From TrEMBL:
InterPro entries: Ribosome_mat_SBDS_N_sf, Sdo1/SBDS-like, SDO1/SBDS_N. This is Ribosome maturation protein SDO1/SBDS N-terminal domain-containing protein. Residues 10-97 form the Ribosome maturation protein SDO1/SBDS N-terminal domain. Residues 91-121 are annotated as: Disordered. It holds the Pfam family SBDS_N. It comes from Exophiala dermatitidis.
Length: 121
């Protein structure tokens, strides 16, 4: 297993364009995905970043990602078995590596423009 893409400032997602919606699975790295495609005995846990299947509401690979509902998985794949669906997305989807612009988190609102002094003052 290689060093995670997010540790290198990148995010690799596998985009699957379905008939009813677009789905994404986040993987650790393109190298891990390629190794899994050659050797399916590699556990999915070493390939995927999370066992969460994302949906972009037909907005393509760059659309807002939300967790896919069981109903949307059933409609598209005929099952809600996430392991089976993840395997299909990894096999048939298109990998894309994008830079991660910043770490998620909250910013310090007290340092924002137009804000003076302590908020409780």
């Amino acid at each position: 297993m290689t060093k995670s893409n997010t540790a290198r400032g990148n995010l690799t997602k596998v985009f699957y364009k379905g008939e009813t919606d677009d789905f994404i699975v986040i993987v650790e790295s393109p190298e891990d995905l390629a190794a899994w495609k050659k050797d399916k005995s590699i556990p999915l846990a070493q390939v995927v970043n999370s066992f969460k299947i994302m949906v972009t509401h037909k907005h393509g690979a760059q659309g807002q990602m939300d967790g896919a509902s069981k109903a949307s998985l059933e409609n598209e794949f005929g099952t809600s078995d996430e392991d089976q669906i993840i395997r299909k997305i990894l096999e048939e989807g298109q990998p894309q590596t994008v830079p991660v612009s910043e770490k998620p988190g909250t910013r310090n609102e007290t340092k924002g423009a137009g804000r003076q002094g302590h908020p409780n003052a």
